[in-house]
Amino acid sequence: MLPVTRCDEHLYPVPKFDLGKGDVKDFMNELKGFHEQFYDCFQRSESRDHFLKFMAGQFSPLERKSIEPIALAVKDGNVRAMQRFVSDAPWDDDKILTKYRSFVNDDLGSPDGALIFDESSFVKKGQDSIGVAKQYCGTIGKVENCQVGVFAAYVSENGYAMVDKRLFIPEKWFADDYAQRRKKCNLPEDTVFRTKPQLAVEMLNAVNQENVLPFKYVLGDSIYGISPDFIAAVESLPDKTYLVSVPKDTQCWLKRPMTITRTYRWGGKTRTKTLLVDPDSKPLTVEELARNVNDYFWYRRQVSEGTKGPIVYEFTRRRVILSAAGLPQKTVWLLIRRSLGDDPQYSYFISNASSSTRLKTLVWLSGLRWAIEQCFEEAKTELGMDHYEVRKFPGWQHHMLSCMLAHFFLWHLKIRMGKKSTIYYAVAA
């Protein structure tokens, strides 16, 4: 008999954003106050004016929140001037981000905060927008012509916000026949190809070195879970715990197999090779392990509150030794999640959490990842995050930065007004 669902085991709940338009009486004055904090990030007064108007347009009831509709809707708006501001005018992006993350820390910062890394896709027509290519588009669940951004979000018991972004530029864009497209899109000449995990490492290091946002946990999906570079980057930071998804064919042992190192000569040089003492001691896939766990060891836990009620899964965990090239490597926690029903679906996570870490902590961490999905949904639904029509690299950066600031501004209003939410994510582990 399985234990009953528990509803009181979590480190902290994450409030869902629920500030309504009617909650703010003098919205523009609030926005102007927020906007003034970034005055010194723009060289010209015209840019400051455009920045305020563009953000105001993002909060408007416009059906399409791209440059032209916003410019036509705001007072004294000019389409061409607004286009130049977003795509070509100089912004001090680094200064804006540093200030912004300081504000995020003031409102949301917590020693037990978490950084979450994930991608968001944007379907695009044509071939001239920076980084556009036929690639997997998570928005529609298939390969499509699109752009893909890698984002970092911050989550704590106080709320959640996006805190950094990178545009993924496919490798083919760095070929010689793309030289003119790169130039036309104003891609910096020193830009080199970087994988999505490498972009995430850049953001992780930037936030850590800045030392403004405190965080204890790092979360990501399987793209990051299978990346040695990403895992090594997190492990290099003291006192940071990661929980990342891994695919079902990830191999591991429940007990570390014995190995032997043999010396041999090849090409006139002495070399060494590590082998399993017992060649038949082959690793299991995490899927094989999961399907052989007795029902006695599965526990039901509520991970979030859905539109139709609590979302509940069954969880179990094991200390495992990961396999790399058929040899034992590091020891980690393997968290296994399965859906309820006759045909359960399995998901797998690994973590460098200490051996004394309880199941409820790992389950709670697996639920926190939903905060970044909520960021994307809110920014796209309310702020036009996916409505942009810019082609140049600076234009994409500026649009996403503006969306990040606009999304956090609403959180700031909620917190400043002392508005309490009764709806939570990661409600119970």
Tell me about this structure.
The protein has 2 domains: 262 residues, no CATH class; 116 residues, no CATH class. With 429 residues, it is α+β, with helices and mostly antiparallel strands. The radius of gyration is 24 Å and the shape is globular. The N terminus and C terminus are likely disordered. α1 packs across α2 and α5 packs parallel to α13. It starts with 13 loop residues before the first strand and ends with a strand. The chain contains 13 helices and 16 strands. The longest helix is centred in the last third of the chain and has 24 residues.
Give a brief description.
The protein is of the alpha+beta class and 429 residues long. Helix content is 33%, strand content 27%. It is globular, with a radius of gyration of 24 Å.
